[in-house]
Amino acid sequence: MLQQQQHKQQEVKRAKIHHHQQQQHQQNDDERTPVPPNGPPGPFSTDPAHFAQRIDPNKLALSRPCCIGEFSLDRTRRQQLGRSRVRYFNERTLGRKLRGANLAENFHTFVPKGDEAEGIEQLLHWIMAMSAPNSALRKTVHECDFVLWRGTITRLSISPYDSNAFGVGVKIACTKHKGVYFVSEFDTEAKQRSENNRNDFQRRTCYGGFKFEQLVTVDDLAPAAQQQHHGTASVAEPVDQNNEFVGIFKATLSSSLANDGGGGDQSGGAVPSPLRLLYGAEIDCISPLYGEFMEIKTQYKAIGQGKGFVHKALKWWIQSYLIGIKQMIIGTHENLILGRVELFPVDSLPKLGSSCWSGPVCLQFLFQFLHYIRRCLDASPEGAILVAERQPNAREFKFWLIGPDEADAQREHRVLSDAFKNYLWR
């Protein structure tokens, strides 16, 4: 209780610093209609002070996520329903048993994903596989309001604390179809530059994370398979990033405000109703003992090491929280030489970042942001696409609307495939 009170006091203190400069801005936001009738929606602030003042730290904004489906992707990115690509954590690798393993081993054999952006195409394939033509779309997606990837939720949610000039920002395109809102992510120009300018060490470090996943997992629970994998055979095995196991989750996102009836969202008026989210998430592996999903990460030297760890901890926490992960598998390394493999409880991450970020603030931002998008699309023509982008060092999202008749812009920011739109949904 004392820690929660201290955490809330820290949030209030940070909020007061911005109080005077935010007061007029807040007043303008509350008075502005969410969708101007003759122009694009106005900007949406990501300043944490805007969300922190009335947050209830004890309020769980996201319901317990429920996995409602699974599919696998092979090396050709062909989708198969079920667990054919699932991997299990090999507990034989815990501790220092893999000490000295080179995470950059066989970097030259790495098979990355193709350059062609998939957007939410795989999610659309899964939705169509779950129903016959002439089905009710909302019924097929479990009456959820939004469909998107977990990664997109993560990058949106961290926006209140992601104003680093060295970041890459975030860009999404959204559209409404048969009462469901679809959100697809696009690379920002900053991200494209970052990817193109990566040096050899950065590419090897990225590869090392995938290699570590391969080293500590098996695709068969048979003891013989685990024993063989514990040897050197897996070190030589190429890493193919195209193979994936994906879970489909649903959860309900609510307001984190201490007083639900007091208004305070950026579109004015009372706090809106809860939102139901359906999202896909790549699953690193499953616990062989309990059948629970687990996340796999690498960390330089030690957990908590480095000035960038606090921001990393925020992303780790949101990623894990969204799919109900309780334990992470972390491999500590130095210059990509593995030191040890350890389990780390997810609920310890907020404690490591309590002086810098707040999970309830992130989820409250997401709640208000998605409601803003919904209200914008509800007031737009059928088939319109709403694009939202936050620059790397910006404290706001800016929007523009693409009308149904703007063919070139519609193709550039396509969210739904023609096959999906023409599936005779009701």
Please write out the topology.
Elements: H1 2-17, H2 19-31, E1 44-45, H3 49-52, E2 66-73, E3 79-81, E4 88-89, H4 121-129, H5 137-140, E5 146-149, H6 150-157, E6 170-177, E7 180-186, H7 189-196, H8 200-215, E8 217-218, H9 223-229, H10 233-236, E9 244-253, E10 275-282, E11 285-286, E12 293-300, H11 309-322, E13 327-334, E14 337-345, H12 349-352, H13 359-378, E15 385-390, E16 396-402, H14 407-412, H15 418-421
Parallel strand pairs: 5-7, 5-10, 12-13
Antiparallel strand pairs: 1-16, 2-3, 2-9, 4-8, 6-7, 6-15, 9-10, 11-12, 13-14, 15-16
Helix pairs in contact: 6-11
Structure summarized in a few sentences:
The chain is of the alpha+beta class. The chain has 15 helices and 16 strands.
List keywords for this structure.
426 residues; 16 strands; disordered N terminus
Description:
With 426 residues, this protein is α+β, with helices and mostly antiparallel strands. It has 15 helices and 16 strands. The strands form three sheets. It has a ten-stranded mixed sheet, sandwiched between helices. A four-stranded mixed sheet has the order 11-12-13-14. The radius of gyration is 22 Å and the shape is globular. The termini are far apart. Residues 1-8 and 11-38 have low confidence and may be disordered.
